[in-house]
Design goal:
The complex is a heterodimer of chains A (715) and B (203). By secondary structure, chain A is an alpha+beta fold. Chain A is built from 19 helices and 25 strands. In chain A, helix 5 packs across helix 10 and helix 6 packs across helix 11. The N terminus and C terminus of chain A are likely disordered. Chain B is an alpha+beta fold and 203 residues long. In chain B, a hairpin with a 5-residue loop joins strand 7 and strand 8. Classes of the chains: A alpha+beta (715), B alpha+beta (203). Chains A and B meet through strand 11 and strand 12 of A and helix 1, strand 8, helix 6 and strand 9 of B. Chain B: Keywords: Signal.
Amino acid sequence: MPHSWPRLLSLIGLAALSAGAVQAAPLQSEHLAVELVAERQALVAGAANWVGLRLEHEEHWHTYWQNAGDTGLPTRFEWTLPPGWKAGPIAWPAPERLQIGDLFNFGYSGTALLPVAIEVPAAAAGTEATVRLAANWLVCKEECIPGKAELTLTLPVAAAAAAPADSPAAAAVRAALARRPVAASWKAAVSADGERINIRVQGADLPAADALDVFALQPQVLANAPAQIARDGAALVVNAARSEYFVAAPAALDLVFVERRGEALRAWQVAAPWPAAAAAAGPAAAETAHGAAPGEVGGLGIALLLAFLGGIVLNLMPCVFPVLSLKALGLAESAHAPAAARRDGLAYLAGAVSGFLVLAAVLLALRAAGQSLGWGFQLQSPLLVAALAYLMVAMGLSLSGAFVIGARLMGVGQSLAGGGGARGAFFTGVLACVVASPCTAPFMGPALGFALTQPAAAALAVFAALGAGLALPIVALSFIPLLARWLPRPGAWMETFKQVMAWPLYVTAVWLFWVLMRQVGADAAAVALLGLVALIAALLYHGRSQLQPQAGWGRRLVFAALLLLALAPLSALTTLAVRPGAEAGAGQAWQTWTPQRFEELQHRGEPVFVNMTAAWCITCLANERIALSSEDFAARLRRDGIHYLKGDWTNQDAAITRYLANFQRSGVPLYVVYPRGGGAPEVLPQLLTPGLVDAALARAAASPSPSYSTSGSSP
Amino acid sequence: MKHLSAFLAAALLSTAALPALAKVEVGQPAPAFSLADSNGKTRTLEEFKGKTVVLEWTNAECPFVKKHYGSGNMQAQQKEATAAGVVWLSINSGAPGKQGAVDGAGANAIVKTGNAAPTAYLLDPEGATGKAYGAKTTPHMYVIDGQGVLRYMGGIDSIQSADAADIPKATQYVKQALAELGSGKAVSVPVSQPYGCSVKYGS
């Protein structure tokens, strides 16, 4: 019985494993033993914990990877966790290529482990918790047997991580994690040539081609037979047959390269964007590409005009209006010095334009460096959100009369004739851009996001137009003294006006804090509020000092100390952050968008409604209120079996940014409806009405879209 | 010994890189075949010219086939199709001795006990017809129009699973293709990913 030895050894191994404290005994199913294990003896509260399903395959039997290949099915997990806990997707280790005759599958044999990160909330510390996993798999030799198991794991939850355990379970989890492909910084380019698909990969530290295999995450793109892989100088070149079941090109093909040398394994993952021309070469992709374009609205000229108009509208935003209305009144006061007023108007224009140009340039540079960012990025940083909230409160306090900001900034009642006037006006322009930036994200994110996907020169021109629009009212006032004369005469009423204008700023601060809470959780936001209290103290103290004829060193020191106290909590923001995330409750109509969940549904040809949103996006919230929260909407989803996936872009999320890029977008909201049975997705407008959504969902639920018809197949 | 097996594996791999399974294409003529049915009668694609033909690769012991027969989905589609004048051919390309491989009597027993209603159950023990079509899975479905042109190839439906509970939620691609062909429309989903067990070909 030559087979009994490895069998016996694996049994001994299993027995040794079950002696560890971390896992329940393995469950013996047909041709496969499964066991839920954890990396640590106790889960760590407020952290992601690795657990995994250990798979002990009987000799010659195997289970499948996320893309199973010619036959088979990927293993699937469904978790039941305590409230507030979150399980990530399977972090698939590098697959093996499995061959039966002429058929190729991708999966695992022998001993394998599928790891999953479980996020445990901080509040769970000190309890004992049970995680439940319903696992579904298909185990095959040549014949196949579907299997499933309900597994539980009960572990204590500790407040802090203990020393890493040395158990076999811990080793198995770590070994599986080490076999995951690493995200390579290589650049991959696809060229599709009829039945062949070429992928050219370039970058640092490319492996040799001899021990390399390549797997595609997306099925129905590459044929499953081994591809030819060769080195061409500094590049790695993959040549593969196109899948016979190729229907439409993905936006990007995700490839996993696996190098096996003896026992050593290295794996990398790289995304190969699909070129638009090659996508059109696919039998049905042209329609998809067309549907994805947000409608080229007349090109750059119109974009510039819209940005300019948008800039003018920005003047009315609650974050901008108070500051600029006072600036305008200041100008009115100085209407008697037209030359100086014109110069200041131009300086202000330069300030506003360069402020937006710098912001756009920074973003473009970050994107060029490979960061997945879009417009609204300035609100994806909790630090910046908190800083903007502080700024709003500080300016509000100044208007309320608590202290006087250097007249350079506010320019109220200050003579603009002096030499500092032009510089002051320039920085007022910059300030206008800064205070306007949080308001551009909610209201203009989509338009500016689109601009960012254009060539750099065009993108910068759009942002310059936005700055010019923002500056327009003040520039007009400074150039046309007549206009200034229409403004009310300065007087005692201005004091009242200032007091009133403080309140929109406070409200803006409240909104920013709400965004902050969504980003970092209540704990970190509370710390930032403490900092705000210190800031208010500092500014009030400063205001009192300003009444003194002479500010002594002691007073300045106290002011500086209070300021420091105000700013210190900001540094703790990110470390304290607990991402509350968007959790789908049982009664909710939607599920959280993840690339895995989305692809799974796509793969199954189910109708899907995708909503990309962010807490700071007012348009998104309005749409949700108006069109996506009614009972009619929920009933439509239920009746037609449409899956509603919601992606939250409040924080940076590279996967969502990539998804947006598929639609030439770089901002939210984005609404996409995928019809049943696959087919071209439909992009909905950025302003939704219930009727429009209902009609789109009805179309998606009906028979599959006709866009899949192949050339020549019409009778 | 180890070297020998490595050598054999390498040799296998290099031959497998050649397309041993033929490629058929939607919109192109479907490969001709001539196979004995479960009653010993020779059946060809040619003889059904003028009629729409469904080819269904099958293996009664495969869990995915069981999913669609156990639930009655496959039989219902067979009955609906044949009632509308469509020819439905179940094909077994399992090599003798492999799981699910049957002879004529075995095939007839499966049809009878399963209450199935294909026009005929064809036996392809050599696997030549299966390979000519590139049939990979059971079930694996093909729809050929009256002119002998392939109009659909792929899975039976849109949800890849072995769970019969998924059937009501799935789009039944063959049924849909037949309805569209029947009303003179283009097939809206002409290609889908086949899913199931591997066809148990001989070497």
